[in-house]
């Protein structure tokens, strides 16, 4: 309706303008004025939307940090073990588990993703193999994480009899992380100017040498930034873990033998992470200070993820500066 | 046998010649049959308006065009009597012997030293002393040594554009090539840097290297080259000694081009 | 023989050029190594689809539950049999509810996402790349359980105060989901708008159009396929989100009666149920059937994105 009206009005003045080219009609000036006003109004509305989003984001972060502040300043919270039935528990094991799982996941998923990204960008940028692989990676990236988690449960926990364990969790998170990393590395490699590769090939180097010694180092700032940002997502993932790494956190002791469930490095022990802890106590928790503990845990999680974000940018920029020597 | 070989055969045996070389991009012809020969110690300029096929021809000599998907090189590229545009020929070996310098200076994002030593290491030179010696020698050949000898381990991107391009030349010379291909090496540089590169080109030729340079700058072609080939719309139109090409062109199209009627 | 005639001052090339050089072997090894990585990913994905489907299909093949009573049944109580002797495994309420929260959250997020991306592409590009994009990346990084928690602490009480009832329900979940998919949709539609060639804009400005007229008349229409892709990707994320939704939706597996009453999505039933049902039972098998529906839907979303890509692809070239 409105668009039809607008074109109608727009056409008429043009026809008139041909008749009296010197003086634009009053109608025409009004149309122009209306267009200007519309344009101003649109800009104002767009600005309001952006401001709303930024304020909303700030409010969410502030809310999380503020509600968890009470627990954040409690010195024992980060080191004590969680309590089942009484108040005052901590999240020591969960904090350790989250980092341990993250490190293991990165150690497994980074080489695979790097290899896949190199193959896709350097050896087979076109062709049927690449199309299949790209579809597979795309599929993996859009699968719901709960489905990936259930597959992990079926395969690692039940079929391989690894039980609810760090290993099952790390392998499941690897599946969740690979598509993210492949995309990040692929984009980073593609962003390296073509002439870098040409220079290497013209010196009689193989594609492999060109990639390993020239392209990957040149893409390193972007790769590092992307990997750390993706680490934040792995760190906060819960749905893929509740049925693979489990929902319990045995008390840890460095003195325990490696085969013991209490040894922190034992990959066959169940390991609840911070994110799973939040979900667990909210859905079936009976601790009296449930709200405070989950808010505190969320605040810790949030602080870690903000730290990942900041570190990602600082590290990327520092590397970039070293490469270009400013 | 080898030691006894007579050296005077040189001027008759061109180091490189092409025989009916063609280039197709996804079935579309970009370069018609081109046959040229290049001798050691000479500079050959390839001139012509943009899109005439001169860079395409240059990139066929070291088979760089093969890196572009859908590109097919036809005909023979004969380097020291070996047709390198054939199956089973190792392009890595060819590219070590036939160096290339690009339009935009493209040093690696490494230190000045590593920019040169990197390819040497890859081709099997491992001893530190050998590397040091070769780095210095090639930087001297490119007239860059005095400017960078105190900052060899700084990033190559700290250098000026002209210095970067000379570093790229040094990087190529370090592999001891007998042919160097240059694809408009001065088009991104200011006049002073251009002058330094042109001196390096003359110097390379005097040491027996066969230099083939693509340029859109006819003054540059007449300054540095012994021979000149004129390309137009994918065809090599005329080739001859540089003074003859610029002084007494035979082909009408070349004459028109030199007089600025097109291009 | 003819090769031996040419003897240059350097070593004779003919000896180096034949055979496979050690460098070629490095190249070969690199190719195989990276190719294996790609294969591994492909095999993993195929295994995943096969495993989940084979368990899901056993609901119909082994337990003999008719497709109709699963997809059209409206009562979910796998431990009881209905009048026809078939367990009550009607998944329709969950399917309807999953689609409702997905569509609703997209409707809520779209104006914000589109507005923000128009702003950062057309009005203030520098601000977009320096400030806004990093901020949306922070938003992407916030874990879904934390969103669930914020939903519990803010949205649910707010809903309760506004319309009464428990505060749990489809609308609450959709609001939280809308915030969660906002960064995805925003960054993809920003890319879509940024990909429109400047020549299109210049053409419009050259005719004396204002910025807003240019955006509505030229930029949005030519970016439409990519914006649709952005929306589908957002829907895909909303459809598969489990924990945040499960914490807010109220978890009542019944046909949604309205936006403000508790309900259950496919993901929330899966999350709640998988821990309680023993493997091999009918109650467990039907959960896998739900997982299969989730899997199938995300494949459908990818298919749609690819179809859009094929139809609208290469339009800017």
Automatic annotation (TrEMBL), chain A:
Family membership: Belongs to the binding-protein-dependent transport system permease family. CysTW subfamily.
Record's keyword terms, sorted: Cell membrane, Membrane, Transmembrane, Transmembrane helix, Transport
Function: Part of the binding-protein-dependent transport system for phosphate; probably responsible for the translocation of the substrate across the membrane.
Alphabetized NCBIfam families for the sequence: 3a0107s02c
InterPro entries, sorted: MetI-like, MetI-like_sf, Phosphate_PstA
Subcellular location(s) of the protein: Cell membrane
Lineage: Bacteria, Bacillati, Actinomycetota, Coriobacteriia, Coriobacteriales
Highest rank taxon of the organism: Bacteria
Residue stretches making up the ABC transmembrane type-1 domain: 95-312
GO MF, any single term: phosphate transmembrane transporter activity
Gene3D superfamilies given in the database record: MetI-like
Annotated membrane topology: Multi-pass membrane protein
One Pfam family recorded for the sequence: BPD_transp_1
Any single GO BP term: phosphate ion transmembrane transport
Transmembrane residue ranges: 43-66, 99-121, 142-164, 170-189, 210-231, 292-312
Chief localisation class: membrane
Region (Disordered): 1-22
UniProt name for this protein: Phosphate transport system permease protein PstA
GO cellular component: plasma membrane
TrEMBL record, chain B:
Sequence ranges assigned to domain ABC transporter in this UniProt record: 16-258
Biological process (GO), any one: phosphate ion transmembrane transport
Top-level division of the source organism's lineage: Bacteria
Keyword terms, alphabetized: ATP-binding, Nucleotide-binding, Translocase, Transport
Keyword Chloroplast listed: no
GO cellular component, as recorded: membrane
InterPro entries assigned: AAA+_ATPase, ABC_transporter-like_ATP-bd, ABC_transporter-like_CS, P-loop_NTPase, PstB-like
Coiled coil: none
Entry GO MF terms: ATP binding; ATP hydrolysis activity; phosphate transmembrane transporter activity
Pfam families attached to this UniProt entry: ABC_tran
PANTHER family cross-referenced by the UniProt entry: ABC TRANSPORTER I FAMILY MEMBER 17 (PTHR43423)
NCBIfam families xrefs: 3a0107s01c2
Protein name: Phosphate ABC transporter ATP-binding protein
Designated gene of the protein: pstB
UniProtKB/TrEMBL annotation, chain C:
SUPFAM superfamilies, per database record: MetI-like
Transmembrane intervals: 32-52, 91-124, 136-159, 165-185, 286-308
Domain ABC transmembrane type-1: 95-305
Gene Ontology terms for molecular function: phosphate transmembrane transporter activity
Compartments where found: Cell membrane
Organism domain of life: Bacteria
Keyword field contains Cell cycle: no
Pfam families for this protein: BPD_transp_1 (PF00528)
Any single biological process term in GO: phosphate ion transport
Topology in the lipid bilayer: Multi-pass membrane protein
Keywords: Cell membrane, Membrane, Phosphate transport, Transmembrane, Transmembrane helix, Transport
Family to which the UniProt record says this protein belongs: Belongs to the binding-protein-dependent transport system permease family. CysTW subfamily.
NCBIfam families for the chain: phosphate_pstC (TIGR02138)
Summary of the function given for this chain in its UniProt record: Part of the binding-protein-dependent transport system for phosphate; probably responsible for the translocation of the substrate across the membrane.
The protein's name: Phosphate transport system permease protein
Organism in which the protein naturally occurs: Parafannyhessea umbonata
Gene for this chain: pstC
């Amino acid at each position: 309706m409105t668009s039809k009206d607008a074109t109608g009005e727009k056409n008429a003045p043009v026809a008139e303008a041909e008749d009296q080219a010197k003086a634009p009609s009053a109608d025409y000036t009004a149309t122009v004025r209306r267009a200007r006003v519309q344009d101003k109004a649109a800009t104002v509305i767009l600005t309001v939307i952006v401001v709303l989003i930024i304020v909303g984001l700030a409010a969410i972060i502030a809310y999380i940090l503020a509600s968890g502040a009470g627990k954040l300043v409690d010195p024992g919270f980060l080191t004590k073990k969680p309590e089942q039935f009484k108040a005052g528990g901590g999240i020591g094991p969960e904090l350790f588990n989250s980092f341990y799982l993250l490190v293991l996941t990165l150690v497994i998923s980074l080489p695979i993703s790097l290899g896949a990204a190199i193959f896709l960008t350097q050896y087979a940028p076109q062709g049927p193999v690449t199309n299949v692989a790209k579809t597979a990676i795309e599929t993996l990236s859009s699968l719901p994480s709960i489905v990936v988690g259930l597959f992990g449960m079926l395969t690692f926990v039940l079929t391989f009899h690894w039980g609810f364990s760090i290993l099952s969790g790390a392998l499941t998170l690897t599946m969740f992380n690979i598509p993210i990393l492949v995309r990040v590395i692929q984009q980073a490699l593609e962003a390296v100017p073509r002439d870098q590769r040409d220079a290497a090939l013209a010196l009689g180097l193989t594609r492999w040498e060109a990639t390993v010694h020239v392209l990957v180092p040149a893409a390193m700032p972007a790769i590092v930034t992307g990997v750390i940002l993706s680490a934040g997502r792995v760190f906060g993932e819960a749905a893929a873990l509740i049925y693979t790494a489990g929902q319990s956190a045995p008390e840890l002791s460095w003195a325990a033998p490696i085969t013991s469930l209490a040894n922190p490095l034992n990959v066959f022990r169940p390991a609840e992470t911070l994110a799973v802890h939040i979900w667990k106590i909210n859905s079936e928790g009976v601790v009296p200070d449930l709200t405070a503990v989950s808010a505190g845990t969320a605040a810790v999680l949030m602080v870690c993820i903000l730290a990942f974000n900041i570190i990602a940018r600082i590290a990327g920029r520092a590397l970039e500066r070293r490469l270009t020597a400013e | 046998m080898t030691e006894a070989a007579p050296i005077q055969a040189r001027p008759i045996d061109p180091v490189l010649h092409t025989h009916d070389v063609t280039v197709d991009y996804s079935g579309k012809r970009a370069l018609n049959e081109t046959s040229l020969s290049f001798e050691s110690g000479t500079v050959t300029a390839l001139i012509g308006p943009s899109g005439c096929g001169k860079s395409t021809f240059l990139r066929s000599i070291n088979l760089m065009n093969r890196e572009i998907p859908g590109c097919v090189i036809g005909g023979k590229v004969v380097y020291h009597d070996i047709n390198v545009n054939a199956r089973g020929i190792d392009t890595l070996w060819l590219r070590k012997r036939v160096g290339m310098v690009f339009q935009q200076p493209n040093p690696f994002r490494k230190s000045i030293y590593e920019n040169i030593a990197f390819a040497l290491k890859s081709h099997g030179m491992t001893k530190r002393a050998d590397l040091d010696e070769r780095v210095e020698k090639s930087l001297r050949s490119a007239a860059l040594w005095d400017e960078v000898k105190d900052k060899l381990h700084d990033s190559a991107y700290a250098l000026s554009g002209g210095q970067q391009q000379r570093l790229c030349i040094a990087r190529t010379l370090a592999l001891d090539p007998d042919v160097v291909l240059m694809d408009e090496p001065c088009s991104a540089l200011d006049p002073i840097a251009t002058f330094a590169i042109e001196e390096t080109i003359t110097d390379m030729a005097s040491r027996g290297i066969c230099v083939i340079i693509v340029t859109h700058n006819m003054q540059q072609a007449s300054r540095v080259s012994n021979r000149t080939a004129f390309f137009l719309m994918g065809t090599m139109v005329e080739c001859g000694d540089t003074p003859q090409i610029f002084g007494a062109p035979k082909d009408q199209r070349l004459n028109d081009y030199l007089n600025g009627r097109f291009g | 023989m003819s090769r031996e005639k040419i003897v240059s001052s350097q070593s004779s090339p003919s000896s180096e050029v034949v055979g496979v050089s050690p460098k070629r072997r490095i190249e070969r090894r690199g190719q195989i190594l990276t190719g294996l990585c790609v294969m591994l990913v492909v095999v993993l994905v195929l295994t995943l689809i096969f495993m989940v489907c084979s368990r899901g299909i056993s609901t119909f093949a082994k337990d003999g539950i008719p497709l109709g009573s699963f997809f059209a049944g409206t009562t979910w109580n796998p431990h009881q049999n209905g009048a026809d002797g078939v367990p009550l495994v009607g998944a329709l309420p969950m399917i309807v509810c999953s689609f409702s929260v997905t569509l609703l959250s997209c409707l809520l997020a779209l104006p914000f996402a589109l507005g923000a991306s128009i702003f950062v592409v057309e009005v203030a590009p520098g601000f977009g790349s320096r400030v806004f994009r990093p901020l949306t990346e922070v938003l992407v990084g916030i874990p879904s359980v934390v969103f669930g928690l914020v939903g519990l602490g803010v949205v649910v009480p707010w809903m309760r105060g506004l319309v009464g009832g428990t505060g749990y329900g489809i609308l609450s979940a959709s609001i939280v989901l809308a915030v969660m998919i906002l960064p995805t949709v925003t960054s993809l539609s920003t890319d879509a708008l940024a990909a429109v060639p400047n020549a299109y804009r210049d053409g419009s400005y050259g005719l004396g159009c204002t910025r807003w007229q240019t955006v509505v008349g030229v930029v949005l229409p030519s970016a439409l396929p990519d914006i649709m892709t952005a929306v589908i990707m957002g829907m895909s994320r909303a459809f598969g989100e489990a924990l945040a939704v499960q914490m807010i939706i109220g978890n009542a597996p019944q046909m949604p009666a309205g936006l403000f009453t508790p309900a259950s999505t496919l993901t929330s039933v899966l999350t709640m149920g998988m821990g309680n049902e023993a493997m091999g039972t009918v109650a467990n098998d039907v959960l896998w059937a739900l997982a299969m529906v989730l899997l199938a839907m995300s494949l459908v979303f990818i298919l749609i994105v690819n179809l859009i890509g094929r139809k609208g692809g290469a339009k800017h070239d």
